[in-house]
Design a protein that fits this description.
AhpD-like; 2 domains; two-stranded antiparallel ribbon; 57% helix
């Protein structure tokens, strides 16, 4: 489904909606240009957003642009964790909705910490890893769980 060849179809979109394509390209260029935020950091932001939206095209394009702008492999690795923390972290404030209907369950859920541990000695995380490569540990300290 996601192949680089699909990007060769962009001219078809441009032909059928030329003004929209022209406007998007201009907007994209301005949004990612050097400004108060340097291009290097804008591309890191773009990589993080692409990781959270899980768009393989955006991930690849902005990874390449980030490297051209001087981003290191270490910075790319760290941005993976920023994106993961924000994507997973969204569950925490959304979890507050549980306490309206299920007060005890909501308090328990909000007091738990999920720890993701890579399986195996000297294991390294790579972008292609799936859930089967990890152990998920849920830690719920009993001292923070209070009756409704």
């Amino acid at each position: 489904m996601y192949t680089k060849e699909n990007l060769n179809k962009l001219p078809v979109l441009a032909r059928h909606a030329p003004e929209a394509m022209k406007a998007f390209r201009a907007w994209d260029k301005v949004a990612l240009a050097d400004g108060a935020i340097p291009k290097k950091y804008k591309e890191l932001i773009a990589v993080a957003v692409a990781l959270t939206t899980q768009c393989p095209y955006c991930i690849d394009i902005h990874r390449q642009e980030a490297i051209k702008a001087g981003v290191t492999e270490q910075q790319l690795a760290e941005v993976v964790w920023v994106a993961a923390a924000l994507r997973a972290g969204g569950a925490i404030p959304h979890g507050t909705h549980l306490s309206k209907n299920f007060p005890r369950v909501g308090r328990i859920a909000l007091s738990c910490l999920v720890v993701i541990v890579k399986a195996g000695p000297r294991a390294r995380l790579s972008l292609g890893d799936t859930c089967r490569n990890f152990w998920f540990l849920v830690i719920c300290p009993t001292t923070s769980i209070r009756p409704p």
